[in-house]
Amino acid sequence: MLDKTWSQPVVAAERFVMRPLRKSDAGLISMYAADKRVALGTRSIPHPLPPGSTEAFIARALKEDRSEDVWAIDGSDFGSSEVMGVISLERMERSQSEIFYWVAPAFWNTGVATAAVQAMVAANPHGAATLFAEVFQDAPGSARVLTNCGFEYLGDAEAFSVARNSKVPTWTYTLKMSR
After folding, report:
1. What is the pTM of this model?
2. For the structural domain made of 11-176, what CATH number should be given?
3. 22 pLDDT exceeds 90?
């Protein structure tokens, strides 16, 4: 059976494309998401990663009535991994979206995260007037990704991390889009 994708565009970058998730992505996403370093950098990935959680994540991403569009960062056409990470946009009120991303450790410090965020901002598939993002304060590299992509610091907050089972201090960023 072929994987069905909804009206979610493929977004091109120089070294990869960002495409809607496919059921066949479960193996690589599970392998990367099971890495404690990845889980600790996100709000929602548990550690250890429970069986079936990746398949449930992909199923939610493929629903027609979803509020979040999720893309695989796919470098397979460029000689890299079919899944290098994941990037998503969650719809908010008043023509706003929040961007989330994680990159597999094998691709850390290679510019993949910055290129993915830049391409997603340029494509602006939700037609958002404003984008928001947040990073944990113990991840300054993720903060640099956002500032390198034009996001401006908005303030401090906190978010619950499932892997850490606690609230974690965050830095919040915003980017006003030209339309």
Report:
1. 0.94
2. 3.40.630.30
3. yes
